[in-house]
Amino acid sequence: MDTDIIISQLIQHFQEIIPLKKNEIDLISQKLEFIRLKKKDYLLREGQISRHMRFIATGSLYAYHIDEKGKENITQLGIENWWVNDLYSYLSELPSRMFIQANEDTTIVQISKSNLELLYREVPAISEFWRLKMQSAYVTLQERTFEHSRADAYTKYRNFVTAYRNIEQRFPQYMIASFLGITVEYLSYLRKKHLSDVS
Question: What is the pLDDT of residue 1?
Fold first, then answer.
């Protein structure tokens, strides 16, 4: 694991939204932790408290909860340069109600909650970064909630492939179907319909 390359990747990600000085980059770099996960390894399990913000450097992850019938319901998919977490657990400091698992061999950069609080004071731009990220996450959640209650399955699928280009090939069909709230068979039908519509 080349941590220098991964740190540069994360800093570049921050700098897409906020400016950072050399001394601020040094302060951030000192507070980072690195995790390597093999495919199917867990980053977080139900019942654990999420105490870190986590950035995907390489690989992919998915988050899910298990309903009363024992069925996995996928709520998040994540690839490189995305953040993945149980924000409910992180913000409330209550046990997580979900699992976060590696879909591929994955490298994570994480910042503990206590270190992030320090960075808010030492590098005020980081606070601005997270303010904007949280706003964006809230808007995305609202859109997804609205779409799930109002949009038909084909619209959901079309919006998914438009918003998340190149992600569909990274995850098994059953995960995409679960994320969209449809069956695998119906997903296959929607894929064919979409390919026919765009060709």
Answer: 66
What span, in angstroms and rounded, lies between the C-alpha atoms of 122 and 21? 12
Nearest one of 71, 133, 70, 74 to 98, comparing CA atoms: 74
**What pLDDT, in 10s, does the model give residues 28-58?**
999 999 999 999 999 999 999 999 999 999 9
Query: What span, in angstroms and rounded, lies between the C-alpha atoms of 159 and 153?
Result: 10
Helices (H), the chain: 3-15, 22-29, 87-92, 113-122, 124-150, 153-163, 173-180, 184-198
Query: What is the DSSP annotation of 26-42?
Result: HHHHTT-EEEEE-TT-E
Residue 187 CA: distances (Å) to CA of 46, 70, 77, 190, 191? 28, 22, 16, 5, 6
What is the spatial distance between Cα 147 and Cα 33, in angstroms, rounded to a whole number? 36
pTM: 0.89
**Per-residue pLDDT tens for 132-152?**
988 888 887 787 777 676 778
With b for 16 or more beta-carbon neighbours within 10 A and e for fewer, the 151-174 pattern comes to eebeebbbebbeebeebbebbeee
Cα-based distances in Å from 51 to 31, 90, 136 = 14, 6, 21
Token pair in block for residue 142: 């609202």
Beta strands in 59-95 (DSSP E): 61-66, 72-78
Categorize the per-residue pLDDT at 191 as very low, low, confident or very high, splitting at 50, 70 and 90. confident
